[in-house]
Fold each of these.
Amino acid sequence: MLRRAGTNFRSGQLSLPAGHLEGGEDAVAGLLRELREEVGVEALPGDCRLVLLVHSAPEHEDDSEYLHLFFIIERWSGEPLIGEPDECSELVWVTPAALPADVVDYVADALQAIERGASLLLFGWDRVAT
């Protein structure tokens, strides 16, 4: 996991490599690009397995809802490193069974959902007033 730093979103908390898709980029191409940029590893599309979709509610009035795709990477090459030191202050290995308390909340819930074998997680919708 990466400790977010120098960003407006969840600075100081641990999260997985992640990002937004760029124009004309499919989900797997975006995943492979983010892995290269953020942790310096390479993977092949066939080694990426989608395991969970998280639909998160807006966190505040000016926010949007998001779809987060969680993949398991079966194989990769390279030694993980901090690829974006202006956005990350630490790289650590964690196990889903013993997550640190400062993991981004929807990421922690997603990892637990993956361990349970879930394929969909609705996050934060209980906070949204209807």
Amino acid sequence: MGDVFVLAEHRRGELREVTLEMLGKGRELAGRLGGHLKAVLLGHNVDAFARELASQAHEVLVVEDKRLENFNSELYQKVLASLLAERKPTLTLIGHTACGMDLAPSLAAELNLPLATDCIGFEFEDDRLLVIRERYLGKLQSKVSFKDSPQYMATVRQAAFPVKELEPLSGQIVAVESPLAEEARRKKFIEYVEAAVGEVDITQAEIIVAVGRGIKEKENLEIVEKLAQAVGGVLAGSRPVIDAGWLPPDRQVGQSGKTVRPRLYIAVGISGSSQHLAGMKNSDIIVAINKDPHAPIFNVATYGIVDDLFKVVPALTEQLSGSYSGQG
């Protein structure tokens, strides 16, 4: 049976969005492999998470241990190495997050498993599983096959897959005895460092207004900020805007920045380089404003406005703010 394991990532009382994204894709892959989808949950006092995951997976394997209360790749590796060696899933999915990038390579090396990282898709050709990865800053996509092995591992890019509304399952919650016999030796959790007041995690935003080099100069950001306020969104930018120092690095969308998947993405003065498109093309609705009708951003846009952003954005802001006069 080709079971698929999904490592549930959680932090400070919440399941990370990437977990739900992987569960939807994992369920599809498990069906194709003729197996079951199993969520793997490590932690302490995680009963609520287990119940939530049980509606999305055929089985939830819970390893309860005080030492797993906070993520520690050394301890996670010990637990997962034991679990994967014993239960032998065909495929294990781990989020391509800071935690996953810390954990997956070392775990795969210990178990001598083929590992594909930063995957954005999965396909089958003649019953052979292939993964899809981006290369050259998103300019190309490659299909990669694993070497022959009874087990495989992959890390999945955040926002690569939608959170699917599937028929709920009644998965069994299975308690697995912790194999840990001692505390971690090399790594120790110290504390969470919160983002400074005023900073925004754009990966969690439902509405994003992003600005590109078409804004021309920093002083013109104000008109885009007003649009973001009018739609209840957050302000982000493409790489040229970040490199110029007009917005902080944590607001960059793209291959070298952050991958986002908001309900609404408004691209203002962004031409749409492959590097930028890689970070936002899976947004639910994309509205592009650009005076160049041939700008690549229009290839992924749901709606496009071909005009000067300095005319369109103020008018759109006024209309959304309820004060648009209808003139001009």
Amino acid sequence: MANGQQKAQENLETFEVWKATQTDDDFTQIIFRGSLSRVEIAKSIGCGKSALNQNPALKAALIQLEDDLRDRGVLPPLTEPAKSDPFKLKHYDNTSNQTKLNSIRVSKLEVENIELKAKVKELENKLERFGELNETLSDMGFMPR
């Protein structure tokens, strides 16, 4: 059984053989969104699509192939943002889910807080009104015992 480095080297060699057997028309048939379809390449060389991204030598060879195809006019040219940072990756934010849950929780608590403040104000008004009535009845001597 081959270890990871041997498998990576085998995938690179298989890619190089596959690349040598393809014509510009063959490459044209697997263009997807301005690049070569990684799925089709992986199927053709018999490896997983992840190998095209995780194997640095294979990834570099694929990018070099695409650059050569762009120079020959087989692939469309890169846009300016793609030229400036071709390996721009989105950083995974492991706190995004917790942040979202906290945001929802905060908004619910704010609504509840507003409702409770309104209820407190209403009860304070009632207490003030009944406090005055209680004083009046007490002054008149009508306090129940």
Amino acid sequence: MNQFIACGIVLIASAPVLAQGRAPASIQAEMLKDWTDLKETLMKIANEMPAEGYNFKPTPPQETFGRRVVHIAVGGDRFLELLGGKAAAPRIDAAAAAATKAGAMKALADSFDYGTAIIKEQTDQTMMQTVDAPFLGPSSRARVFTFVMGHTWDLYGQLAVYLRLQGRVPPASQRP
């Protein structure tokens, strides 16, 4: 009886989608959309900080804004390399890239482009295959991508604070 109830719930929940004639998106397609949207958001917030603000630190022990931006790129690349794609990871000299706005933004864009290439190589089946990832242990490729995206959103929150401490408003919070 429980199977019939579960099937009924799935059919009822799916009815609006089925009625509109749309099939659910693939895991790969959804991951690519989220990754592309994240790139746009991160490029906007990184661009919002003026070049001279890339050396700003809220307190002496904290990293500069530029170093936080480059951390997103370098950290993401390390995890994405675990997925075994054909695309080559960008080689980023973190210290040099973090020293300038142009360098940090290029590192960020290159990292996101690398992630896009890796996602495009995947299928729903390969997204569910297991890889061994630091901090996560055996995980699906999809889980590794969601980990990288979650980490990136965490750093987005840090970048928003850096901007506000400089009297700037993050792009996502700006009102026309």
